[in-house]
Amino acid sequence: MSKVHLVRNGLDELLTGLEEGDPVPAERDLAVRFGVARDTVRQALHELLLEGRVQRRGRGTVVAKPKLTQPLSLRSYTEGAERMGRKPGRILVTWEDIEATPDLAAGLDVEVAEPVMHLERVLLADNERIGLESTYLPLSRFAGLYDTFDPETSLYAAIRASGVYFASAEELIETILPTPREASLLLTTTAMPMLHLRRRSLDAQGQPIEVVRALYRGDRVAFQSTLVDDV
């Protein structure tokens, strides 16, 4: 077993005796405790950081909150956060009209260059930045949101309030690294793995409602799905 794995095992045991927010001993103290070089400790801590077990706070490291587990469903981010007892929030980054690219036009069933509403927001859980979401809506259908929607609240709730209901969605999730801009908005680094989600939602008539591109910090968010054998 490598020295990093030995330190990982020791850290796993150490973390079981600590509470959320408790400080993790300094690298130099852990190096002495496990009889290894500080570089070995630093690598083991980095693995725990990527897994979301610990997080940086100032110049130290503390035990992290459990990851926010989001269901793969037609429910909103707000509902998922509230079910875990977390306080959802959002920071508006961009709210503008853009011309539909060929990809957006196909996804939203509109003409190329037709106006599309673009809403970009940082997603919060207990005031911690965990995701960055870009939503694209056909302006011809949802222009009224400019007058009625508060971008710090649930977009899905506002869409349902307008009389449009989600019936199905196509979703793809993969792992990517963020751009410098995305990392800056999420207060992390370009080395932090992100869960990249792309979704196309439809109403009961099969008409597109939205196209979404979202990034979630891999150390702070996980997704859960319930599978049923329909054979």
TrEMBL record:
This is GntR family transcriptional regulator. SUPFAM superfamilies: Chorismate lyase-like, Winged helix' DNA-binding domain. Keywords: DNA-binding, Transcription, Transcription regulation. It comes from the Bacteria. The lineage of its organism: Bacteria, Bacillati, Actinomycetota, Actinomycetes, Mycobacteriales. Pfam families: GntR, UTRA. Residues 1-66 form the HTH gntR-type domain.
